[in-house]
Amino acid sequence: MQSALINTHHYTSNAKINLGLQVLxxxxxxxxxxxxxxxxxxxxxxxxxxxxxSFQLSVEGIDVPVDESNLISKAYQLIRSKTERVDTxxxxxxxxxxxxxxxxxxxxxxxxxxxxxxxxxxxxxFSLEELEKMGAExxxxxPFFIKGGVQLVEGIGDILTPGDSNLLEEYSxxxxxxxxxxxxxxxxxxxxxxxxxxxxxxxxSPLSKPMKWExxxxxxxxxxxxxxxxxxxxxxxxxNAGALYAGLSGSGSxxxxxxxxxxxxxxxxxxxxPYQTFLSSPVFRC
Length: 286
Fold this sequence. Notes:
28% of the residues lie in helices and 28% in strands.
């Protein structure tokens, strides 16, 4: 038992929020081109890698599948297929804290953390760019989490441009997660985008100082608020509480408020006690 603990390798897997999200158009392949600023935050899952003769996956915290449909399993098999021999296989234990289906990218983050970890443990020496390409095979949000931080995300999530982390380090983010599951395919269909590229300007501002929060927006909100008025109620409550900006992350259902005073944001947590809440800060990797 002691030996197993010594040989266990620990990694974290962070959530993200979207600072504005514009859906530009539907592509011929069925995917949508988007434009959004992804920000990695310190709400995290934990992954432990333990040497074993064969791959295993176990989970605690939130009930999620541990079969081949799990993105961790898919990431493991994908990077394992890139090399003939390894010194050992690994059992992965996931401590799940990031809510599922909330627009926070938890599953995608788990997959990216698995690629990064196994690249290191197996000494495969893939570049971050090569890992991003692998991630794109697993899901649209996975490439972002290879490097994380703050990035402008375009295309279907595969065109990444790093942003200036200094512009966001002073902010705190109050996340409110209602018990609502919003289907991402449903949300895209509700937007009813045509195949023609949309030429209008982005609804969110580039990162700047001072930040022009009033220009940030999420296209999904206008269709989701009609079906899920509770989302609008939470957003309005955050705005009334003094949030610089409040909006939906991804296609929801997480709503977050941006604050420039951590203590103020912390004091507001009890105002949203009926819901699952998190107070988070940005994560910027070296």
